[in-house]
Structures are given as C-alpha cells and as structure tokens.
Specification:
single chain, mainly alpha, 2 domains, globular, disordered C terminus
C-alpha cells in the first residue's frame, strides 16, 4: 500500500455500507419507524468520518464547524429576537456565525493533535452518548430511538478507526507503518490531559443522557433475535426465482419417502364406496324397521256393560 491512507471517500463509502447493513437489520426487526431510521442511519455515516475532525484541512472538520456555526448563530438569533433591533440582530447572528466557524475552529486545532484523543474508543463513546442527547433533547426523539442513533454513531466511529489501522499495515513490504496503533486505542496516553478532558466530557454527557431501559430491553429481547434469524434467508426461493438449498433438500427428501405435501386425492374411492378425500366419514344410516301387524300387541277395549 505504500504511503496510501484511507481518505475521505474511502471512509464515507465504507461507513455508508456498514450503516446500510445495520439499517437493513433494524428495518427487518421492525423496532423503529422508517422516518426515524433515516436519522439513525445518517448518524452512522457521520460517525464514519467524524474522527478526522482533528485534521485542520479535512472536509469533516470544515463541515462540522460550519454546522455548529449555523446552529449556534440561529440559536442566538431566536433567543434575542425580542430584545434587540433588526440591525443588532444581524450583527449578533453574523458575529456568532464567524466566531464559531473560524474562531472556534482555529482554537480547536491549536489544542488538538491529529490521531490524538479523537482517534480513540473513549471519543467514540463520547460521540455516541452526545448523539443520544442530541436526538432526545434537540430532535425530540424517544429514548430508544436516541440510543439507537448513538449505537449507529459508535459503530460508524469504530469503522473509521478500524480502517485507519488497516491502512497502517503495508502488505507489500510486510511491515507496520509508524501510524499503526494510533487510531484504535482506548485513550491517548501521549496526551494525558486531553484524555482526562474527554473522560470528563463523557461523564457529563452521560449525566444528561436519556434512560437506557427501552433500548437495552429491546436489544436483549429473545423475540427480536428469533425474528431476525427467521428472516435472515428466504424460506423457499431467492427473489422468487432461485430455489434455496434448504428447500431443494426438503423436496428431495419428500420424493425419496414418497410423501407429497399439500395434495389430497379427492377422486379416489375406497372399496366400501367411501370417498378417500373425506377425513372423517360418518357411518351409513340403517333404515328403521317397520313392525308387522303380527308383532303388534292387541289392545283390549272394554265393553259398554262392563262395570267400572
């Protein structure tokens, strides 16, 4: 691989594939509404490029701070809408936008190091919890959906870190590059205070995060996994055209044993004349014997002169 590194296109392509696979499982499990599934899938795609926020000239960094600038500028505008004149609101809005986009961006990259704390599992946990907080408190999503978005973010983030480590292995020269081990790590041992700050931020995010009961109960449900297992492969034919090996073996076994499933010979008649297609046959009714006059006992009629 030489000095080739996983670039933005590679990260977002692989992240999209991984998030799409997770979205397919989530949709098959029927645990979230389709409109919420789009949001959690986008969280996974965002997570697949987010670690490069510590790279000053990277597209994720520019996009992240541009998004933060837009969010905070409008938040200030709506908060101060009734307190200042239109001209003052323009100044506040534009000033906040420029301050966050360029000022905060510059300060952040002066104190951050590429492949530092943002390339760590601790940062992945922080971003996952922060995603859950944003989903619930800003997007008004239920707690279960919020943590599902956090889970997608975490998987996408780990996908990025794993790709960085894979690209740190030079297969052609059978050697490890100097960057190996700098991405997929629990924390940045080279910058202790940065790791300490990230740990504190993670704890703070956990304090305001939504409850996890709904998400954990749903994820540990036996019916969820049994349903996914049943839907993992088609029961008979792929796309209704190609027969699955399991179905083919079942048909071969049926032919070998002479069992024809789902067929009843409606026209066959047994020796006693009953229809073989009838599961339960009622016995033929026997005509009731009519007694003869000889068998009928005589009834005596008393005479008129008989005494009572």
């Amino acid at each position: 691989m030489g000095d080739v590194m996983a670039n933005f296109t590679t990260h977002i392509a692989v992240g999209t594939v991984v998030s799409g696979a997770l979205a397919t499982l989530t949709l098959a499990a029927n645990v979230v509404a389709p409109e919420n599934l789009v949001a959690v899938t986008m969280a996974g795609v965002l997570g697949s490029v987010l670690p490069d926020i510590d790279l000053k000239d990277s597209r994720p960094s520019r996009a992240m701070f541009a998004g933060l600038a837009i969010f905070f500028s409008f938040a200030v505008l709506f908060t101060a809408a009734t307190k200042f004149s239109i001209a003052e609101l323009w100044i506040l809005w534009l000033g906040t936008l420029l301050l966050v986009r360029y000022g905060l961006h510059m300060v952040f990259h002066r104190i951050s190091v590429h492949r530092g704390i943002w390339h760590s599992i601790l940062a992945a946990v922080f971003c996952a919890v922060a995603t859950a907080v944003v989903f619930q408190h800003m997007l008004n999503k239920p707690a279960g959906v919020a943590w599902l978005g956090g889970a997608f973010m975490f998987v996408g983030y780990l996908t990025h870190l794993t790709l960085d480590e894979i690209y740190s292995v030079d297969v052609m020269d059978t050697r490890l590059k100097s960057s190996f081990g700098t991405a997929l790590k629990f924390f940045d041992h080279r910058h202790f205070y940065a790791s300490l700050g990230m740990a504190a931020a993670t704890l703070g995010a956990i304090v305001v995060s939504p409850p996890t009961n709904t998400f954990v109960d749903g994820l540990s449900s036996r019916s969820l996994w049994s349903g996914l297992e049943q839907r993992l492969l088609p029961p008979d034919k792929w796309f209704g055209l190609v027969e699955t090996p399991r179905m083919a073996r079942r048909n071969d076994d049926d032919k070998a044993t002479g069992v024809v499933t789902g067929s009843v010979n409606q026209g066959a008649v047994t020796e006693n004349g009953s229809d073989a297609g009838t599961l339960i046959s009622e016995p033929a009714s026997t005509p009731e014997a009519i007694p003869s006059p000889a068998d009928t006992p005589a009834v005596s009629v008393p005479s008129e002169n008989a005494s009572p």
